[in-house]
Amino acid sequence: MTDKSGKDFNYQKLDEVIHSRIRLAIMSVLIGLEEAEFNFLKEKVKATDGNLSVHLRKLEDSGYISSKKEFIDRKPKTTYKLTAKGRKAFEAYIEQLEKIIGKK
């Protein structure tokens, strides 16, 4: 299949790690922030603790995000940030989407 400019595109080239509603939402939030706490992501993504944890782990295992765990007043605080690899993957994902919808 080709786009308006005659260039080939293939939806199967979309990054399967990012191409999940929750993981895409996480990446979209983190792309504009230095870092974000677990509860902030939970609120923005509208996911349960368990569901969010699974998706964060998948992104972290892929090297797209990193986490930092600490205790403040004996309460756990986990923050996440996009890695350089994650930023590059997200930008490539968006570029591929733009090809599919004919913006590039």
TrEMBL record:
It comes from Melioribacter roseus (strain DSM 23840 / JCM 17771 / VKM B-2668 / P3M-2). This is ArsR family transcriptional regulator. Residues 12-95 form the HTH arsR-type domain. One of its GO terms (molecular function) is DNA-binding transcription factor activity. InterPro entries: HTH_ArsR_DNA-bd_dom (IPR001845), WH-like_DNA-bd_sf (IPR036388), WH_DNA-bd_dom (IPR027395), WH_DNA-bd_sf (IPR036390).
